Amino acid sequence: MGIVYEEITLRNAVDVGAYKRGLITEQEIRQITITAIVDTGAATLVISHELRRQLGLEINGTSPARQADNMPVTVYTAEPVEVHWNNRQMTCEPWVFSETGTTLLGAIPLENMDLMVDPKNQVLVGVHGDQMLGRL
């Protein structure tokens, strides 16, 4: 299987909450649409420090992790973002790693949005077709 790329939109979830409370306008919600690598080996959403700054996310803390080569690293965790793909969305605290690296869409957001990789066509598809099923 080759590398799978997908376009996703990331929205600052703190801004979304402020908009819902009438504190900012919808146009003030910081968001960006990017092409991410779909990485089923990555635990969660991984973004760069540059993308974190563009979205206006503060650092919440650190977390131990392992790179693909099994080397231990410490990653930063940031304020939550909404991840949007087609008609699906979820919210997570991204891991922040590297200054200007690639964005990885990992296993937790994929499972939360009921998505999987179609290895033959190298695209994301719904596990249960076009209808997203929730999980308890």
Features:
11 strands; alpha+beta; 136 residues; globular; single chain; Cathepsin D, subunit A, domain 1; 5-stranded mixed β-sheet
Structure in words:
This protein is of the alpha+beta class and 136 residues long. It has one domain (4-126): Beta Barrel (Cathepsin D, subunit A, domain 1), CATH 2.40.70. The chain contains three helices and eleven strands. It has helices spanning 13-20, 49-55, 107-112, and strands at residues 4-12, 31-38, 46-47, 59-66, 72-78, 81-85, 88-92, 95-96, 104-105, 115-118, 123-126. The protein has a five-stranded mixed β-sheet. The protein has a four-stranded mixed β-sheet with strand order 3-8-5-4. Strand 6 and strand 7 (88-92) form a beta hairpin.
- Per CATH, the superfamily is Acid Proteases
Order of helices and strands: EHEEHEEEEEEHEE
Which overall shape is indicated by the principal axes computed on the Cα atoms? Answer: globular
Task: Give the N-terminus to C-terminus distance in angstroms.
Answer: 31 Å
**Strand segment count:** 11
Strand content: 35-45%
Largest sheet: 5 strands, mixed
Tell me the Rg in angstroms.
15 Å
